[in-house]
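Margin note: ligand = LQZAQKY5.
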Amino acid sequence: MTGPRDAKSADRADQADRAQREERAEPAEPAEPAEPAERAERDHDQDVDEALALVRDAAAPPADRSGGQPGERTRGAHQPHEPHHHSHQPSHSARSPHSSREHQPRHSHHSHQSTPWPQARAIAARAAAAVRTRAATPVPLDRTLGLVLAAPLTALTDLPSFDTSAMDGWAVAGPGPWKVRDGGMLAGQSGTDALADGEAMPVATGARIPREVTAVIRTEHGRTDGKGRLHAEREVLHGQDIRPRAQECRSGDQLLPAQIPVTPAVLGLAAAAGYDSLLVVPRPRVEVLVLGDELLTEGLPREGLIRDALGPMLPSWLRALGAEVIAVRRLGDDAKKLRAAVESSPAELVVTTGGTASGPVDHVHPTLHALDAELLVDGVEVRPGHPMLLARLDERRHLVGLPGNPLAAVSGLLTLAEPVLRTLSGRIAPVPYLAPTRDEIHGHPHDTRLVPVALRAEPQLVAVPLHYNGPAMLRGIAASDGLAVVPPGGAKPGQELEILDLPWTLPSSPGDLGAGDVATSNTRTSTGNSSTGNKRGKASGKASGRTSGTDGDRGDGASSAGGCFT
Ligand SMILES: Nc1nc2c(c(=O)[nH]1)N[C@H]1C(S)=C(S)[C@@H](COP(=O)(O)OP(=O)(O)OC[C@H]3O[C@@H](n4cnc5c(N)ncnc54)[C@H](O)[C@@H]3O)O[C@H]1N2
Ligand code: MOO
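Resulting structure:
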């Protein structure tokens, strides 16, 4: 962890803390039964995350309201629950993980064979590694930010490419005093006559200097007399303040190896070294299929309908994970549309949201069955998000099924989509890092939990678990810096936990995030025709939340130029 990040994180943690304390000071009770903890104890079918979130929200003691910490909660309110059984049957899965040679899921408490969390991530990375990716192509420099170098970056020129003055002052030849020549050299001027011994020439920083120059004297270290002669006021060392040609590199030197992500610094180096375009790994194309008849794209929730939280959230996160999002389509709960969309998708990764469970309109499993897809992961031992799945559609395409509950979808995104996209986009796995949890975190008896945390420097780095972490809630994660990986059984205060960074991406214009990316009904957003995606239109940030399907209106320049760092 770097210093600035710690400081930023501390701010975030403070804000999150404050926001959550303020919230708990409000008299309004959540619209849940009075004693949610007891209810959860009785109801073994209730997901433990949901129960914990309710307990934490509703049962915050008065002391907590007057300054308690967000990780504190009522003792005894949540003993480990019985394993959660869910009814989703693998029988309708085309080719289940059982038949896969990729792994042998251990027999778990679940009614079907779900995969342990670490193994699920490894399977996802391996599955993507087996895909033959599109060939690397040269991409204009200004559209490579966040992509990965497909070849080493080799200097196309010496740097500097000529002897250069490092300071404003005089270039001198031989010992002084020197006769100052009329005129001089500014940066960008092409050449001058040779300098004789005993001559000086005014120069600006960055000016090309002739070979004979033995030193540069800074303006503040020399003085001219009435006869136009320059006197040094300090000892002059041979070669001082001259940047000799090829000081940084010679033409042909390797500046960076392949597989390095293009950061702003890489962009600058590449430009300095003479590049107009870079050979980069193309972004894997992703199509997002948002399922659910209950979803609204604008206005307030009403009459059983709710706002779609995933359509606005996923495209930016997918881009930050290395993807080119070619479309976000809303298909309702229509099995035929889903099948047609999956069948015809040109994307290397299809991401569905919702419909992964076994409800009457949960069409993901039957669709995969109908398409004879191979289920590589069918459920993961993680909370939230355990119904997530990964399927191989054909030798080029995979599908990640994210559960509909929004935090469960984030869990699926980071568990399954992240390793797939990381591998397809040529990125190297981030080095895992640990932080001790400040507070106790209750665990699921058998499954890994992913819990939103704010990182804080106190003064050592600590992870502060946040409230409102139920599967249907985004409030905790919206205030968080990352997700703590809590092993089965939970974590004691001070216990080191792996932290999953959230893929943050900054918009390059107001139109780059959210609704502007979402195609309503079956409108496909334009894919453009370049290897990395979309022409950088004048992202207009359409307030309507609809796209017209033209490049200029897509407003997703973030995929090529908006900064896509995790
Ligand atoms: N009988 C069982 N029921 C459920 C199980 C189970 O194992 N057996 N698992 C529960 C868990 S855990 C989850 S998570 C969900 C997963 O369900 P689906 O993936 O089929 O998702 P839906 O039923 O379509 O939606 C669940 C929930 O999320 C809301 N939703 C859906 N899409 C969005 C969106 N884009 N933005 C905001 N909210 C969304 C949806 O309205 C539902 O409330 O299943 C449980 N049930
Ligand atoms: O608990 Mo579900 O897995 O809401 O994600």
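Residues 47, 86-88, 290, 292, 294-295, 306, 308-310, 353-359, 362, 386-387, 403-406, 408, 471 surround LQZAQKY5 (ligand 1) (CB under 6 Å).
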